[in-house]
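Handout, section 4.2: multi-component inputs.
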Amino acid sequence: MTTTSLVAPISLSTDLLTGAEWSPAHTRDLLHLSADIKARPIRYASTLHGKFIALIFEKPSLRTRVTFDVGIQSMGGSVVFLDHTQASASLGARESIADVARNLERWVHGIVARVYHQRVLEEMAANANIPVINALSDKFHPCQALADFFTLEERFGALRSFKLAYVGDGNNVCHSLIYLAARLGVHLRVATPPDYAPLPEVVADGKRVARETRAKIELMTDPREAVSGALAVYTDSWTSMGFEEEGEIRNAVFQPYQVNAELMSLAAPDAVFMHCLPAHRGLEVTPEVLDGAQSVVLDQSENRMYVQKAILHTLF
Ligand code: CP
Ligand code: NVA
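Output:
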């Protein structure tokens, strides 16, 4: 992708809770800004000077935690980490979410939160007059999907009509891919078992926006049909955080959706393999695919940082 000069600040919703907040034009601008930040990080070294950002995590994280921490510090800001991963310190147990949010807004300039329930983010955003950014919830993972499309644009150029196949669970990552694919004009095929399809309201929004952008959002149950001719094949864990009790049954139901060399052979010859990580070798993906030449999973991880810096630059 060509990089632009310092991209003008975009006027957007003050929160990023789902990935559906932004118009198609704003979404494209955000990817341009990410490219500029990646190419010229020094220009953005003081964007967050004097700003403090709370990182609240109810679930474990490697990529999201490190990329936000390093990204914020590299823009001159400071991080306050609030660890709520232990059941004994669960968010909202000691005082209400609303009270936590009302206190935080007196001390910090923004909140990045990974939570079990999307409504916790909404409650925070409703009670704190500072930006709230979704670092993954049960329903959405917008920072991930933005980094994924940035990775594809970097590699393949313009995304209009780009053929992306998502295979597996109709989960948080899948929902955010639908929102963003619709906004970026992508042709997304989603193949899930019938009982694990993405939420109808997310699909309905995607299809509504797709009519404007000439994107295409298609749902199906056959992974082979989804992958056929695709330029990128994406999968995620069969059992997301918070659903561990269903692990055994999910491993059985999702077996036909494993991304292996045979499934990849149905994609375009220069297709890439994508996964948000962490991956489970031998379950949703075989080692030969995850660690093979077509895999761009570490580019996705790296790009989380640039996209998140662009989000912060935009919201602050
Ligand atoms: N992809 C992702 O969000 O990774 P972490 O769970 O390690 O943050
Ligand atoms: N769908 C996965 C993504 C992890 C980054 C989960 O929610 O656990």
